[in-house]
Amino acid sequence: MLKQLKKWNTLRNQILFIFLFVMIIVLLIVGLLTLRQVSTLLKNNAEKQIHQVAIEANGRIDSLYEQINMSSKLVITDERVQEILTKIYDGKEISFHDRQQLMGQVNRIMGNTDGIFSFQIFSKEQQRVIPLDEDLLKNRIDKKWVEKANDAKGGLVWIGDDPQDKNNFLAIRRVSLIERKYKNGGYLLISINRDHFQFAKSNNQYSILLDENEKPIVQNYNGDILEIISNPGGTIHLNEGDYIVNKETSNLTGWTVLILTPVSELTEGLAGIRTGIILSGVVGAIIFMIFSLFLSTVITRPIVRLTKTMQYAGQGTLTLNPEVSSVNEINELNSTYNQLVKETNHLIRMVYQKEILRSRSELKALQAQINPHFLFNTLDSLHWSLEEKNEDELSEVVIAMSDLFRYTITKETDDDWVFLKDEIKHIGDYMEIMKMRFGDRLDWQVSVPQEFEKVRIPKLIIQPLVENAILHGAGNKVGDSLVTVTVEPVKTDVIRIAVEDNGPGMKLERIHQIQESMNNGAVASSRGKGIAISNVNKRLKLYYNEKLHSELLIESEPNKGTRISFEIPIRGN
Fold first, then answer.
1. pLDDT in tens, 538-568
2. CB 3.0-4.6 Å disulfide test: which of 137, 542, 549, 572 passes with 126?
3. DSSP character for 363?
4. Long-range contacts, stretch 139-142, CB < 8 angstroms, 24+ apart
């Protein structure tokens, strides 16, 4: 048995099996994804259509409500209605003929409005004026609706089901007498056909219309609607199955339209699509099997020759295989092998060269350690030589230069963070050296509260701003120049560091150019102005990231100097 299985365990059969296995997996995944996407698309389109139906139904109900509102408003403002109710308000009697004429006038208005069953007018004392009987308003509706009509002051008040006729709804509004300063002259009771508010378009679809108090106005669902009302939207399970709930609330009436559509109705047609995908997958698998059989046979025929060539690869540097096959796949494999040989030989050479470069780098690193010490020793020797010659001023400058180089070159721990007092001392050394250039024209002031001296800041974050103030401030001014460095608290854990000069200042356009260069990382001008500012701004963002309270703020006016400041947290690192 094992020997028979081993007989079929050939490279061609393995390739064929792998191809078929991968193809079946791919077809299965693609088919499932396609079916899922189509199902989702159909469902989404159906939900959009249902939502549009709900919007249209809501708009239709708003239109009907507004039509009823306008028709009833025409009745209560009609000249004849106002005249009759004014007579009653004044205590005058109206004749049977007057009531007949009034009824005819109201019927003409009602005839132009769809959905209204009747208009009933009552006097202020709730006695019926039309139709021509002696029924009282309190016998038709509860007195709370009369009170709500009075509170609405002529607005339409929806009552709901007619207690005397379940086929109709009732609404009421108070009649305000125009000639009696809008005093209460009576009431208009409107009877509306229930069928006028039906809006369901499908036999399998449920529709519910709720008033502003979530009480049903019309519905074709006979079950308990409390579960449906409490559902925020989406899918709900009823006795018959799953339903999609779509809600739409009117801004005019406050009423809510609920449309429940069966999920099965949304996914109609998926069975046919599923069958088509399965048939396509089977046909594709058969076609791919035929091509895989042919392809695996073509591949395995010359593969042995290439294998032998690879076995004869010599020791050390690998040799190329010049043999070319008529099969494109084998040519690609042969080309890949030759490329691998080339890259391997290249990597061998690269490793050798990197070893040489590493040795040179170690030597340069050793030299880099020696050179600063040589520089410091030379400056110290120069200092003592000047001391012996009583050149005290030059000796102090040499000390300042030595400290400046030592601060700049020597590596610091903690990611290049230093104490604020060390940065201020470095600025003092720099100013001493610059004073040799500018003489008595240059002066500086430093104001740092003692409690902030131990605050850690990035190394060389203030000195470039001082250098910028000297070069573009004192360097461009005739007369005495003053550079001021100030550190002051802003909040409990935030300090502001400012560098200010009394130089020629800048125009607003120049400030905008520098700010733009800081934002995009470019140089402010071809002469290099703004490079130090841009670099400091980049370093602030790099070191403090989101903890940075403000980027560099530039304040300047022509002939009034320049002030550059930034705010950082006390515990920035």
1. 888 877 877 777 778 999 998 888 999 999 9
2. 137
3. H
4. 140/164, 140/170, 140/189, 141/170, 141/172, 141/189
